[in-house]
Amino acid sequence: MNELKTSLPKHDPYAALRIKEFLFFLSGRFFMTLAIQMQSVIIGWQIYQYTKDELALGMIGLAEAIPFIIVSLFSGHVADTFNRKHIIVMFALLLTLCTSTLLYFTLDTSTVIQTYGTTPIFLVIGGIGVVRGFLSASTPAFMSQIVPRGLYTNSSTWNSTFWHIASVVGPAAAGLICAINFTVAYQVNIVLIIIGVISFLFIASKPIPAKEKKESLSESLSAGIKFVFKNEIILGAITLDLFAVLFGGAVAMLPAYADKILHVGSVELGLLRAAPAVGAVIMALIIAYRPPTKNAGRNLLLSVAAFGAATICFAVSTNFYLSFFFLFLTGAFDNVSVVIRHTILQLSTPDEMRGRVSAVNNIFIGSSNEIGAFESGVAARALGLKPSVVFGGIMTILVVAATARLVPKLKNLNMNSIK
To answer: Are 414 and 295 spatial neighbours (Cβ–Cβ below 8 Å)?
Structure first.
């Protein structure tokens, strides 16, 4: 018996980090995420300073989500048809252009905002939504070409870890820099995007995956949708996250919470914005050593339910430190579901369809952050700030209960059984 135990291969929590190109990928993703997370806080605080309106915060999400959704299916087709590295680099440079435009609006020589109000900012946000649509389809598909299949769970864990570290540092740094002025904040933002682009340039281009059959554009665009809707486990996992993010997101209302409930400024706002990512990073380190693969379905459902409960606790808190703690918990529980969902997608999707399936996933999940922000703004206007977040947390828990009942395959999922 002892001989059998010693002969079994030990789990290596750092296996994916031993791949040089994956380290460059993590570096590029880290700096790009750092820039995007900073940008989210900068824009949110800037819009709120101009308007003092919760609904305007929600409109930021809608302005980004609509173009994101419009381009998503086509961006998935592009990611499966063209060089994924080149797509990432090109659209990252377009993100630099969008950020440079936001920078121009903050300069003393610019009279755009004084003349047209916040409308030009919202137009640029729409452009950022288009850029994110292409980056979101190409980036995970490119990662799957860098690491071997046996390391998908490990690479997803570290990818999530670095994403959340950037999500800790980005908002906190944005809050500090916004205290100086918005111009400096956007300048730092541009430098970070450029560093991310340089990191991706150190990764060798990968071959375009061969398709089993020739498809027309319409067939290619619909293939990802058909694949997802035929796979009960994938559909259940992304639908669960869709509604959890749609109803349970309190982040969009943080500028209003900081101002009206907690009575704090931009520095504390940055810390609150970073709190979920702090929790996610700590949870990711735990997952690296103890992957949630054996009882993945059960772990997924429990983590999303706990996310909803922590959201409710945040909603009723009036203490800055308690609010930070409950946001910390939302990030920790959310990261469990992120790692499980990403691993399910990687294990279950053929390489030639990764871009399109990622695009469908992004329509469900990526855009739900922004649509959820809009929903939060409308709910806050209709119900009040605190009741709207409580409502979202309750709805998240109800969605978990419905998913457990309607998708039994997901509840009983063991990821080791996915071939």
So the answer is: yes
What structural domains and CATH numbers belong to the chain?
17-201+219-417 (1.20.1250.20)
How far apart CA 332 and CA 327 sit, in angstroms, is 9
Cα 101 to Cα 237: distance, rounded to the nearest angstrom:
37
Distance of CA 304 to the CA centre of its chain: 15
Distance of CA 396 to the CA centre of its chain: 18
Residue 343 to residue 417: CA distance in whole angstroms: 12
CB neighbourhood size of 273 (10 A): 27
The predicted pLDDT at position 373 comes to 66
CA distance 71 to 90: 16
Region of 171 (left: φ > 0; alpha: ψ -120 to 50; beta: rest) is alpha
- Residues 238, 242, 244, 245: is their CA dihedral positive or negative? positive
Ramachandran region of residue 384, left (φ > 0), alpha (ψ -120 to 50) or beta?
left
Q: Which one of 50-59, 85-94, 142-151 scores highest in mean pLDDT?
A: 85-94
Which residues, in sequence order, are CB contacts of 1 under 8 Å at separation 6+?
A: none
- Label residue 352 exposed, middle or buried (CB < 10 Å: 0-12, 13-18, 19+): middle
Q: Torsion-angle region of residue 282: left (phi > 0), alpha (psi -120 to 50) or beta?
A: alpha
Name the residue with tokens 């978990």: 400
User: What is the CA angle 203-208-211, rounded to 5?
Assistant: 155
d(CA 417, CA 198): 38
pLDDT of 2 above 50 = no
Q: Which residue has the higher pLDDT, 42 or 3?
A: 42
Whether residue 93 has pLDDT greater than 90: yes
DSSP classification of residue 149: G
Q: pLDDT band at 193, cuts 50/70/90?
A: very high
- pLDDT score recorded for residue 250: 65
Is the C-alpha dihedral spanning 158, 161, 165, 170 positive or negative? positive
Residue-level length of the chain: 419
In tens, the pLDDT along 117-176 reads: 788 899 999 999 999 989 988 998 899 889 887 787 788 888 878 887 887 788 778 878
Tokens describing residue 239? 């639908």
Q: Which of 212, 209, 240, 227 is nearest to 73 (CA)?
A: 227
Q: What is the DSSP string of 342-387?
A: HHHHHHHS-GGGHHHHHHHHHHHTHHHHHHHHHHHHHHHHHH-HHH
Enter the pTM of the model.
0.70
How far apart are the C-alpha atoms of 152 and 347, rounded to whole Å?
7
